[in-house]
Design brief:
single chain, 276 residues, alpha/beta, 434 Repressor (Amino-terminal Domain), Endonuclease, Chain A, 2 domains, six-stranded mixed β-sheet, 12 helices, 6 strands, 50% helix
Length: 276
């Protein structure tokens, strides 16, 4: 018995509407996903995820669909809207993609990345961002962060590569004792079978990712997506050309950062400078 097609939600966003229209025109043409796959040269599984809005369509698909269905530019127009909108569910999808990723590459300019934070450091961050927040809410936020960190202990665990700006190590949250524990935790993750950590020193100067953070997720099928985060919000980037641009910026930083061994020595020197 064939699986029942997943219900679509075209009113949720332009990306969801794109997927719903693709299914509608495909079914109107009496075409299965396998049949459409032969026409557009995209795998059946990838087309299924586009219909359910799990992934953005590749840039080549809208024009091919318009040609196949005779839709006079409808899919081209929907794609333009979908590629520019801010999705209300972006952060949830970011978490889903992080959990599915086989390779995670991150750069942070100001804070220890969430996957490497200690409990006391995270609590200090939460309290700094909202001093009036109740302690039990901070604990709830920490439990959510801890659940993310569980993926690093999965079998198999993803390969994690992190670059931290020197400012991350120098800027104290929670006081010297909290920072000493946090830096010690970073030391433990500097070079392991599944993780590497590199420090980008101030002497490197300016770079393309200054002022924010970036996460690059490589999925099992080789698909790459990026999460670009600023002061108050983040953007999930799925357009291949945009992701390649972010990947290039990340690779340049990795080439310029200290090696994991030298990064460990640098972290130890920062720990030694902390007041006792």
């Amino acid at each position: 018995m064939a699986a029942r097609p997943r219900e679509l939600t075209p009113d949720r966003s332009a990306r969801h509407l794109f997927g719903a229209k693709m299914r509608a025109f495909r079914e109107r043409a009496g075409m299965s996903l396998e049949g459409l796959s032969d026409v557009v040269n995209i795998s059946r599984s990838h087309l299924s995820r586009i219909e359910t809005a799990e992934v953005m369509p590749p840039p080549s698909l809208p024009g091919t669909l318009d040609a196949a269905f005779g839709t006079d530019g409808i899919f081209e127009e929907l794609y333009k809207l979908a590629s520019r909108e801010s999705h209300p569910d972006q952060f949830r999808r970011r978490m889903e993609l992080e959990a599915r990723a086989r390779i995670i590459d991150e750069f942070s300019c100001q804070l220890v990345t969430g996957l490497m934070q200690t409990k006391d450091y995270a609590h200090a961050l939460f309290q700094t961002y909202d001093p009036r927040r109740r302690p039990e809410k901070n604990e709830e936020l920490w439990q959510a962060r801890l659940s993310r960190q569980a993926l690093l202990r999965a079998d198999p665990a993803p390969d994690l590569s992190v670059i931290l700006d020197e400012a991350v190590l120098r800027r104290s949250y929670g006081g010297p004792a909290v920072m000493r524990d946090q830096l010690a935790h970073l030391l433990d993750l500097t070079l392991t079978p599944t993780s590497t950590l590199q420090v980008l020193p101030f002497e490197h100067g300016g770079h393309a990712l200054a002022g924010g953070s970036l996460a690059l997720f490589t999925l099992e099928d080789g698909t790459q997506v990026a999460w670009d985060e600023g002061f108050s919000d983040g953007t999930l980037l799925e357009d291949p050309e945009t992701v390649r641009h972010r990947r290039r910026a990340y690779d340049l930083l990795r080439a310029s950062a200290l090696s994991p061994r030298d990064s460990a020595a640098f972290i130890r020197s920062v720990m030694e400078e902390l007041p006792t």
